[in-house]
Amino acid sequence: MPTYLTPALAWRRLREGNERFVSGESRHPNQDAARRSSLLEGQNPFAVIFGCADSRLAAEIIFDLGLGDAFVVRTAGQVIDDAVLGSLEYSISELKVPLIAILGHDSCGAVTATKGAVETGEMPPGFIRDLVERITPSVLTAKRNGQEEVNDMVVEHVKQTAQRLADSSRVISDAIEEGRVAVIGLSYKLGEGQAALVSAIGDV
User: What DSSP string describes 103-171?
Assistant: First the structure.
């Protein structure tokens, strides 16, 4: 059965799970054999987490979630491409998920590499160049705003990623307009384990 949570309630559930993780009181819900069996016929996640692929950013752990709770999409530097857009649109149109959370983090390697490329003019080789090219507008915007620190650039990139999703996808923008979906931007602190809200599109 679908969860029928509002975007605001879905964000509250994510936030409460993160608070448990930060305080060392994780419950590790929905991680047993019974939960596994209950999901055989389908899934009804209550949130989409589109985050950086960094190994320290395991979504189900930092939000204290289990099987079937979150639809997770991850790329280095939470960079959007067609496969990401298709995955997110599927979660909205088919799974009826009410919340998309964009999850960036401090000391992000992809953003750091982009900052370096912008400042030196030297592009990295291979497909890493593609990541850097997609993150460059966020780094340039941060610099234009007088923000020279990588972590400030990460926050800017989270905000721009959220806006780009709403601008690029008709499925997502329509769902936001109808009040069925919200897109939030979160910045995660590796040391504290806390995911802070930095932007919101829609009602949360």
Answer: EEETT-HHHHHHHHHHHH-PPPSTTHHHHHHHHHHHHHHHHHTT--SHHHHHHHHHHHHHHHHHHH-HH
Q: Residue 82 has which token pair? A: 């067609």
Residue 1 has pLDDT above 50, yes or no: no
* 28 is an annotated ligand-binding site residue: no
54 among annotated binding-site residues = yes
52 is in an annotated binding site: yes
Residues 6+ apart with CB under 8 A from 146: none
106 is in an annotated binding site: no
- DSSP secondary structure letters along 75-113: EGGG---HHHHHHHHHHHHTS---EEEEEEETT-HHHHH
**Whole-number pLDDT of residue 4:** 73
Domains of the chain: 7-201 (3.40.1050.10)
Main-chain phi, psi angles of 14, to 5 degrees? -60, -45
Q: How many CA atoms lie within 13 A of 34 on its CB side?
A: 2
Cα separation, 83 vs 150, whole angstroms = 27
pTM summary value: 0.94
